[in-house]
């Protein structure tokens, strides 16, 4: 019997759902093993029954549940709890579900400030009241799914990698264990490191020095060339079986989309350490909190104290 | 929680005192019967230079309302330049506090020598008053 799969999306762009599609040919084999019972992005399955006849929202029972996106409204919270009740194994898909992702940058300001900016103060907006009819209330901040319900497995990344999604689902279906890397991106980065910066911090558009076509292990570490790279405080694994991190392959510094190396890690402190070790000045970065927590704001970012 | 409870805010203050000067200074304050608030919890470290910024951030995000880092006066360090390292780390800590949304006044670096018992008591009294005025750490709510 095929395993049933339910998927739900919250505060997310939909990129992680595209990643499922990006699995490519192995997806055909995978689809034979699973039966999708609920997936709003793909199929029409109403929460209150097809004609809205049910009094309570309902998600069908499933062996595997995927949740993408962080929790931003009361509706997301209820849906996450319903998913937890109905799914035997619950997987957080993508950095938004795991750590809040880019939407969690909103945690740098209060919900009040956020609404005022968006609906009142923004110059391109007609000054209207806040929307309130027939929409779920916003939560006080963006939460990672794991802050609301218990999560069995996290698949970080923005978006996560097709290889990892397929690997995790296949491992789960075959009863094999699946674990995330506990190394940092730097551990898998082949570039040359001499522990000394050759330049002060530079803007990314200045472009790093490298020989096109030459292997990456002949390029100097991007951070040491002066380009801010979140590699030291970011979990590795984006390179998949190839090993080399995705962004480095494109001669770009790591954005940090795989989130912190462990749940307890503090990317802000780690990155400050990494910067000063090679002689770069963290004061040059205009918005350190957001830069170092671009994908892991849930529970890590908070508004500045009122004076 | 009424008004009375608010008035009775007793901050938790962590003092990281170096083994050679500041902890001995704190000892002297005790031997000399200098009075200072009981809000201060002292942890002895071998050198102020060994206090990783992570420890200060951890303390302030997990229950402490203020952190004082005490070391020997510049030039007096038992390990030659540990306190200068501490001074550089203090700069980084101040930056991190901004990023974490914590008031900079909650952290202080101070030099206390082994003979400065009364000064240690004065420092702790002043710092405790300062934190009492600031109120509880934003991470407590």
Q: What's the short version?
A:
The complex is a heterodimer of chains A (307) and B (141). In chain A, 28% of the residues lie in helices and 12% in strands. Chain A has 307 residues and is α/β, with parallel strands linked by helices.
Helical residue percent of chain A?
Answer: 25-40%
| CATH level-1 class of the largest domain in chain A | Alpha Beta
Count the strands of chain A?
A: 7
Helix-strand sequence of chain B:
HEHEHEHEH
- Taking the alpha carbons of the first and last residues of chain B, their distance comes to 14 Å
Portion in strands of chain B: 15-25%
- Helices and strands of chain B: which structural class? alpha/beta
Please report the number of helical segments of chain B.
5
* Alpha carbon gyration radius of chain A: 21 Å
What is the helix/strand order of chain A? EHHEEEHEHHEHEHHHHH
Low-confidence stretches of chain B: none
3D structure, described in words:
- The complex is a heterodimer of chains A (307) and B (141).
- Chain A folds into two domains: 3-106 and 133-174, 3-Layer(aba) Sandwich (Rossmann fold), CATH 3.40.50; 185-292.
- Chain A is 28% helix and 12% strand.
- Chain A has helices at 15-22, 25-33, 74-86, 95-99, 111-121, 145-148, 162-174, 185-188, 246-249, 267-277, 288-292; strands at residues 3-9, 34-38, 62-68, 71-73, 87-93, 138-143, 153-155.
- The mean pLDDT of chain A is 91.
- The model of chain B has no long low-confidence stretch (mean pLDDT 91).
- Chain B contains five helices and four strands.
- Chain B has one domain.
- Chain A binds chain B through residues 266, 268-269, 272-273, 276, 282-283, 288-289, 292, 302-305, and chain B through 53-54, 57, 92, 95-96, 98-103, 138.
């Amino acid at each position: 019997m095929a395993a049933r799969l339910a998927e739900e999306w919250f505060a997310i762009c939909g990129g992680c759902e595209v990643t499922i599609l990006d699995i490519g040919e192995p997806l055909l084999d995978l689809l034979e093993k699973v039966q999708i019972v609920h997936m709003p992005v793909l199929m029409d399955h109403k929460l209150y029954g097809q004609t809205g006849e049910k009094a309570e929202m309902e998600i069908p029972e499933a062996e595997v549940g995927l949740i993408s996106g962080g929790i931003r409204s009361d509706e997301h919270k209820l849906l996450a709890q319903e998913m937890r009740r109905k799914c035997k194994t619950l997987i957080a898909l993508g950095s938004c579900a795991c750590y809040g992702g880019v939407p969690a940058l909103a945690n740098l300001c209060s919900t009040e400030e956020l609404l005022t900016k968006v609906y009142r103060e923004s110059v391109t907006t007609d000054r209207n009241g806040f929307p309130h009819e027939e929409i779920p209330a916003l939560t006080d901040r963006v939460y990672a799914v794991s802050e609301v319900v218990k999560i069995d497995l996290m698949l970080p990344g923005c978006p996560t990698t097709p290889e990892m999604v397929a690997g995790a689902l296949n491992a789960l279906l075959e009863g094999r264990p699946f674990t995330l890397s506990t190394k940092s991106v730097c551990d898998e980065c082949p570039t040359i490191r001499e522990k000394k910066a050759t330049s002060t911090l530079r803007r990314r558009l200045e472009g790093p020095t490298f020989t096109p076509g030459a292997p990456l292990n002949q390029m100097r570490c991007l951070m040491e060339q002066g380009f801010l790279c979140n590699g030291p405080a970011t979990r590795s694994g984006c390179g998949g079986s190839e090993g080399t991190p995705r962004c480095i392959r494109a001669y770009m510094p790591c954005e940090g989309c795989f989130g912190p190396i462990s749940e307890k890690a503090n990317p802000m402190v780690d990155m400050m350490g990494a910067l000063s070790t090679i002689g770069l000045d963290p004061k040059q970065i205009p918005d350190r909190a957001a830069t170092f927590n671009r994908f892991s704001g849930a529970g890590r970012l908070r508004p500045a104290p009122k004076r | 929680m009424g008004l009375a409870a608010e008035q009775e805010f007793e901050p938790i203050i962590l003092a990281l005192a170096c083994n050679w000067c500041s902890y001995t200074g704190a000892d002297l304050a005790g031997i000399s019967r200098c009075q200072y608030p009981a809000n201060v919890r002292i942890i002895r470290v071998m050198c102020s230079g060994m206090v990783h910024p992570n420890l200060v951030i951890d303390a302030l995000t997990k229950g402490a309302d203020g952190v004082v880092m005490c070391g020997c006066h510049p030039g007096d360090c038992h390990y030659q330049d540990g306190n200068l390292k501490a001074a550089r780390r203090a700069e980084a800590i101040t930056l991190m506090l901004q990023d974490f949304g914590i008031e900079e006044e909650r952290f202080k670096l101070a030099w206390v020598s082994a003979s400065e018992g009364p000064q240690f008591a004065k420092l702790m009294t002043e710092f405790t008053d300062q934190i009492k005025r600031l109120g509880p750490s934003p991470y407590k709510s």
